[in-house]
Write a structure and sequence with these properties.
Strand order of the largest sheet of chain B: 1-2-4-3
Order of helices and strands of chain B: HEHEHEE
Radius of gyration of chain B: 11 Å
Number of strands of chain B: 4
Largest sheet of chain B: 4 strands, mixed
Order of helices and strands of chain A: EHHEHEHEHE
CATH superfamily of chain B: TusA-like domain
Helix content of chain A: 25-40%
CATH topology of chain A: Hypothetical Protein Ychn, Chain: A
Strand content of chain B: 25-35%
Distance between the termini of chain B: 18 Å
Shape of chain B: globular
Number of helices of chain A: 5
Helix content of chain B: 25-40%
CATH topology of chain B: Translation Initiation Factor IF3
Strand content of chain A: 15-25%
Structural class of chain A: alpha/beta
Structural class of chain B: alpha+beta
Number of domains of chain A: 1
CATH superfamily of chain A: DsrEFH-like
Radius of gyration of chain A: 13 Å
Strand order of the largest sheet of chain A: 4-3-2-1-5
Shape of chain A: globular
Distance between the termini of chain A: 23 Å
Largest sheet of chain A: 5 strands, parallel
Oligomer: heterodimer
Chain lengths: ~120, ~80
């Protein structure tokens, strides 16, 4: 099965939403989807974080997109290497997100057909 | 591809109303909906999102379904897909 990996490194709305919009397309086309959250992108998967990131005109709210991704079978990985930089702990993360380091990203990216960076 | 007249005469096995839903919603609804269409049956997706007109034929090709055509209605489109797998 084809696979798409998206590097989510920002909590700016115009960078935080596209991984889920494009990711939704990938899921609709039966691709495997991996979303890798690091640096300020970790705010997307922190408890209460997604609610604060809003984008007028988007198809869903960010929590709605996260739910869509998880229900669609996407793998959400929080980069533990960035935890001390943005003051995040594993228990701060929403349910359904796993932790991984740089090797996790490299391994996922190395056998992906598409890798996107936001 | 079928003509508008031919499409209008089809009786779809499944109708998905994705009007008012923005991209990628209609594709996800199509993916969910096609599973309840019998093999060789027809699904019609109603969408008011212009990107669906370009995306649904690509989705159908990728998923091995047959895209039959699009009919424009008042402020939305009806896109016909025949289940292929």
């Amino acid at each position: 099965m084809a696979k798409m990996v998206v590097f989510c490194g920002s909590d700016e709305p115009q960078k935080a939403f596209p991984p889920f919009m494009l990711g939704g397309g990938a899921l609709a086309m039966d691709m495997d989807l991996v979303l890798f959250f690091t640096m300020n992108g970790l705010n997307i998967v922190k408890k209460g974080g997604a609610e604060k990131i809003t984008l007028a005109g988007a198809a869903k709210t960010l929590p709605g997109f996260i739910e869509m991704a998880i229900n669609g079978g996407a793998k959400l990985i929080a980069c533990s290497a960035a935890f001390p930089i943005v003051n995040c702990k594993e228990e701060d993360l929403i349910e359904g997100v796993e932790c991984g380091g740089v090797a996790t990203f490299v391994e996922e990216a190395a056998d992906a057909d598409v890798v996107l960076t936001f | 591809m079928m003509s508008s007249d031919e499409l209008a005469q089809l009786t779809p096995d499944k109708e998905i109303d994705a009007r008012g839903v923005a991209c990628p919603g209609p594709l996800l609804e199509a993916k969910r909906g096609i599973t309840s269409v019998p093999m060789g049956g027809v699904m019609v997706v109603m969408s008011s999102d212009a990107s669906t007109v370009a995306d649904l034929p690509r989705w159908a090709a990728k998923m091995n379904h047959e895209y039959l055509g699009t009919v424009e209605d008042a402020g939305f489109w009806r896109l016909f897909v025949k289940r292929g797998k």
